[in-house]
Design a protein that fits this description.
Elements lengths: L1 H17 L3 E4 L16 E4 L2 E3 L5 E5 L8 E5 L6 E3 L8 H5 L4 E6 L8 H16 L11 E6 L1 H11 L9 E5 L13 H6 L5 H6 L12 E7 L8 H12 L4 E6 L15 H15 L8 H7 L5 E2 L18 E2 L1 H12 L4 H9 L15 H10 L3 E3 L1 H4 L3 E3 L4 H4 L5 H4 L2 H14 L3 E3 L1 E2 L16 E6 L6 E10 L2 E8 L4 E4 L4 H6 L4 E9 L6
Parallel strand pairs: 5-7, 5-8, 8-9, 9-10, 10-11, 12-13
Antiparallel strand pairs: 1-4, 2-3, 3-6, 4-7, 14-22, 15-16, 17-22, 18-19, 18-22, 19-20, 20-21
Helix pairs in contact: 3-4, 9-10, 10-11
Keywords: Carbohydrate metabolism, Glycosidase, Hydrolase, Polysaccharide degradation, Signal, Xylan degradation
Pfam families: Abhydrolase_3, AmiA-like
Organism: Bacteroides xylanisolvens
Length: about 525
């Protein structure tokens, strides 16, 4: 009885508090894109709005926030939005758990997929920008969606950058795939009448899952006549295949669009399961920095040298099961940048992202860094914090061609490599001598930064690369170790590693650019 009274009191409090929402314009200075729709929104049936042209985010603040936030994307086939049962009606329930709850009124695509996607991205940015003001942990922001809103949620969960990645996702009877046409023709509303196969695959979330896709809660019914159960089931299986924590709840009856409706026979079950999952099932990483979070998922991966040197013409090689020190960092960075892993990897690995034979690959780490800075996804942190400079001098590959499979019998490749070496040699870069790196690291070196270890070996610039991680107040290196034959976090602090290797002279530090990635 006491427990029941406590629940009633907290619910009443939550309701009174949640009835004071704040509706904020999503784009106060105007949206960056348009679907071509004009005029004012319309309520075509009770609580169902269409022709949304002015998107908003309605925020419900709980009396006792626990730091977690959820943005709800109502469904409606990308033609309208059911704002109550799949939106506002859930506010008291979420606020009663201490969750800051928001309802996103997003614009309809009208065949322009980028419009609702940009609205959802902006909603996540807004929450993180106001995190302190709203008592929200910026690394505990989830996205939730029903039906087509579930598709929007799954799209953001598989196409994101470091600013817009949800920390978890909640899907109710979601549209997931575009490979088949659903009742109501959601695909046409999103992609137009004649989408390309590339578009269809891109917006089929089950095909876009990676190991970094956010953890998920999925609920649906077996008898859904509008969105077949295979949408949610196949998405769950894709998450499982990529070892992404996920839970799937399938109820025998209920049809489609039940949301928070009391008439849904299994409302108590799904809400209790979700409450339990939000309390005990969601796991937030100890350090949410994307480079470190993703890099640590590679711990134990086998070290294998020269995996990129394949027979035949130069092509984009992806072997995440076997890495060397640089490919480990490349794969981590490509995932952290979000959206297309393969596209990201190509622009990271090749000069200006163009594959044109073996010499087009960025073999020297100094040029690899320069390419990343030029294209906006890397920032040179050492340049801003160390006064020490040195001139790059590269010649090792062209003067030792027999050590490289694609140079040994190709004078033309050797000639081109010599030209690239000459082009970057003489450039001045900032670095930090190992004598100036304390055991505890430095304030300007952060978790997840890329550490490039400089060398005095003639003709080379960088001997080894890894990712910075602080452990018990000391700076260590997460890296693919040739000595140990796998990806590890160094037992000894980084400055000890440097001092124990006579040919290593110091470090360069670069950071993934959060503002320009994607």
């Amino acid at each position: 009885m006491r427990r029941l009274l406590s629940i009633i009191v907290s619910l009443v409090t939550a309701i009174s508090f949640a009835q004071q929402p704040v509706e904020l314009p999503l784009w106060p200075d105007g949206a960056p894109n348009s679907s071509g729709l004009t005029g004012e929104e319309q309520e075509t049936r009770p609580h169902f709005v269409t022709n949304v042209t002015h998107p908003t985010l309605t925020v419900y603040h709980p009396e006792k926030p626990n730091g977690m936030a959820i943005i709800m994307c109502p469904g409606g086939g990308y033609r309208g939005l059911g704002m109550d049962g799949e939106g506002y009606d859930m506010a008291p329930w979420f606020c009663g758990q201490g969750i800051t709850y928001m309802v996103l009124k997003y614009r309809m695509p009208n065949g322009h997929w980028e419009v609702p996607v940009s609205d959802a991205e902006q909603a996540i940015r807004m929450v993180r920008q106001h995190a302190k003001e709203w008592n929200v942990n910026p690394y505990k922001v989830g996205l939730m969606g029903a039906s087509a809103g579930g598709h929007l949620t799954a799209t953001l969960a598989t196409h994101y950058n470091s600013e817009t990645r949800p920390d978890f996702q909640i899907l109710l009877y979601p549209v997931v795939t575009m490979m088949q046409v659903t009742r109501g023709n959601t695909r046409t509303a999103l992609l137009g009448k004649n989408p390309t196969m590339e578009q269809i695959q891109k917006f089929s979330a089950e095909l876009q899952v990676t190991p970094d896709t956010p953890q998920a809660f999925i609920a649906l019914t077996s008898d859904d006549p509008s969105v077949a159960p295979y949408h949610g089931v196949n998405y769950y299986l894709a998450l499982q295949k990529n070892k992404v924590p996920a839970t799937l709840h399938v109820y025998p009856t209920g049809g489609h669009g039940w949301g928070f409706q009391d008439h849904f026979k299994y409302k108590q079950q799904w809400t209790q399961e979700l409450e339990k999952w939000l309390r005990d099932g969601v796991v937030f990483p100890e350090n949410p920095e994307p480079m470190l979070r993703i890099g640590k998922s590679y711990l134990g991966t086998k070290y294998v040298a020269n995996t990129l040197d394949q027979d035949g013409e130069e092509s984009l090689v992806i072997r995440t099961d076997a890495v060397d020190c640089l490919t480990f960092v490349e794969y981590t960075l490509a995932q952290a940048l979000g959206s297309s892993f393969a596209d990201n990897l190509q622009k990271i690995r090749y000069r200006d992202g163009i594959i044109n034979g073996y010499p087009s690959r960025l073999h020297y780490t100094s040029e690899w860094i320069e390419n990343g800075i030029r294209h906006g996804f890397l920032t040179d942190i050492t340049a801003k914090n160390s006064a020490h400079t040195q001139k790059i001098s590269l010649s090792y590959m062209s003067t030792h061609p027999k050590q490289y499979k694609k140079l040994a019998d190709s004078p033309e490749n050797v000639r081109q490599m010599a030209e690239y070496e000459k082009a970057i040699s003489g450039k001045v870069v900032h670095w930090l001598p190992k004598s100036e790196l304390p055991e505890a690291g430095l304030p300007w070196i952060m978790n997840g930064d890329i550490i490039a270890i400089t060398t005095k070996m003639p003709g080379l610039d960088i001997a080894h690369v890894g990712i910075a991680e602080y452990k018990e107040g000391k700076l260590h290196l997460l890296h693919a170790s040739s000595t140990l034959g796998k990806v590890v976090v160094s037992d000894e602090p980084l400055n000890h590693m440097l001092n124990n290797n006579k040919s290593w002279t110091g470090i360069r530090v670069v950071r993934m650019s959060h503002s320009k990635n994607n």
